[in-house]
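In this supplementary section we document a worked example of the pipeline. Step one takes a protein sequence of length 179 as its only input; no multiple sequence alignment statistics are reported here. Step two produces a three-dimensional model, which step three serialises into structure tokens for compact storage. The input and output of this example are shown verbatim.
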Amino acid sequence: MNQIQRNKIYLMIGTGGLISLAFFLTIPLIGLYAIDQFRVSTSQAGLLSSIWPATVFVCSFFVGRVADRWGYFKSMKLGNVICTVAFALMASTSSISVYIATLILFGIGKSLNESSMRAAIASMSPPDELARFMRLRYVLINIVCVGGPFLGFVSYKAFSSWAFAFSGLLYGLVFMILS
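The serialised model returned by step three reads:
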């Protein structure tokens, strides 16, 4: 493996960390925003919060097939654009039906990004280094997993719906880095 390929893998791992930060920031925002903006109950907020993971679950297989044919980097970039648009719409919506649509859109973008990134790292890594790259990726994800939801809660209390814009900005930044 040459240094250019290794740098690309490290770039994907680093941008994956930014995406994970945006994702973990968003976890508390989805429910808090629904409760504050739409006056839903906590159980309804929990139901709304389950929309995007269900979408990721349903779409991952299909978008994985698309990424195999279309290309991993194109799929990752499209996923980042979709997530950025979803967060921009989440921050500005006052309709619960539009909010639900943005959660579905976020799930589609996340499935495009995540499955493509894992596949790209696996396809670019030599077999003897794949486990090390994946461990590094998951260590970074676990680090942001610890602080991300807390930062999301704090940012929501400080900036309200603009906290979604920050998550969208992180996805947009990753898009620019990958371009």
